[in-house]
Amino acid sequence: MINVLVADDELPAVEELAFLLGRDERIGAIHRAISGAEALSALETESVDAVFLDIHMPALSGLDIARAISRSPRPPAVVFVTADEDCALEAFELAAVDYLLKPVRAERLARSVSRISELIKDGSKVPEMITVDQGGTTRMIRRDDVSYVQAQGDYARLHTAEASYLIRVPLSDLEQQWAEAGFIRIHRSYLMSLNHVGHMKLAAARPSVTVAGAELPISRRHLPAVRDKLEATRIRPQG
Fold first, then answer.
1. Is the pLDDT of residue 124 over 80?
2. Is the Phosphoprotein keyword given for this protein (predicted)?
3. Rounded mean pLDDT of the chain?
4. Contact in structure between 82 and 102 (CB atoms under 8 Å)
5. What angle do CA 62, 64, 70 make, to 5 degrees?
6. Quick one: pLDDT at residue 159?
7. Cα-flanking dihedrals φ and ψ of residue 163, to 5°?
8. What is the structure's pLDDT at 35?
9. Which residue has the higher pLDDT, 88 or 195?
10. What percentage of the chain reaches a pLDDT higher than 90?
11. Which of 52, 124, 178, 203 places its Cα 20 to 30 Å from the Cα of 31?
12. Strands 50-54, 208-211: pairing kind
C-alpha cells in the first residue's frame, strides 16, 4: 500500500484529490495539509511514500517543499498538482515523478499512482526525462511515455498518449541512444517502444505492429531483427 500526503492551500482541492486517491486500491493512508508548514510537519511525523503538492501555496510553495524533502535520506516520490504549466521544467529538475494539471482526471491520476508504484518497486530509480518545446513552451516528458518515434527529415516526432512532440534529433541517433531502453527500429521512418506494443502481424503480406492504437509498418529489412527481439523475450518452460 502507498501512503500519501496531499498538500494544497485550498481545502476543497485537498478533499477532491484525497477522494480520487481513496478510490485506488493501491493507496493506503491519506494525510492532508492545507499549507506548506503543515505539509512539512506531516512529513516529519507520518510515514509517507508519495506527496501530491500544489505548486502555488503562500509562504512555502510546493517547489520549496520538494527542495526541502529532496535533502532527506529517503525522500518520498513527488507529484506536482497545479493549474500552471510554466513550472514543469523546474519541477522535473527536482526529480518529480509526475506533473498533473488541474482539474485532475481520475485516469490520469491512476497513471501517476502506477508511476509511484514502479518507482518504489525499482528502488527509487528516477525516470529518464526529455526536454521538448511545444508552442513556445518548454516541457519535460518521460521517455517511457513515448510509444513510438516517427522520422521527419532531420527531426523526429515523439508520440505519447496525450500529444506528439518534434525534436531536432535524427531517428538514427535515437535508435542508438534508446536501444537499451527497449526501443527498436521497425522501418526507416519508425522506432517503436516494446513496452507499448499491442499486437503484431509478422506473417502477413504487409507486416505491421499496433503501438498505442497506431498501426505501423514493419519493413522487410527490419523484420528479422523484430523477430529476433520477440524470440529473445519469449517465456519458455524450465528444464
1. no
2. yes
3. 88
4. yes
5. 100
6. 95
7. -165, 180
8. 95
9. 195
10. 54
11. 124
12. unpaired
C-alpha cell at 73: 535520506
Q: Quick check: 112 and 100 in contact, CB under 8 A?
A: yes
**Confidence class for position 95, pLDDT limits 50, 70, 90:** confident
pLDDT at 227 over 70: yes
Residue 25: the pLDDT is 95
Residue 103 identity:
P
CA–CA distance, 236 with 39 (Å, rounded to integer): 49
Report the amino acid identity of residue 179: A
Beta strands in 57-110 (DSSP E): 77-82, 98-101
Nearest alpha carbon to residue 149 among 183, 113, 125: 183
**Cα–Cα–Cα angle for 230, 233, 239, nearest 5°?**
125
Quote the CA–CA distance of 91 and 162 in Å, as a whole number: 19
Q: 86 falls in which pLDDT band (50, 70, 90)? A: low
Separation between Cα atoms, residue 94 and residue 55, nearest integer Å: 12
The cell numbers describing 185, all together, are 527500429
Coil/strand/helix, residue 84:
coil
Residue with cell 521517455: 143
The residue to which cell 497513471 is assigned: 111
Q: How far apart are CA 235 and CA 103, in angstroms?
A: 42
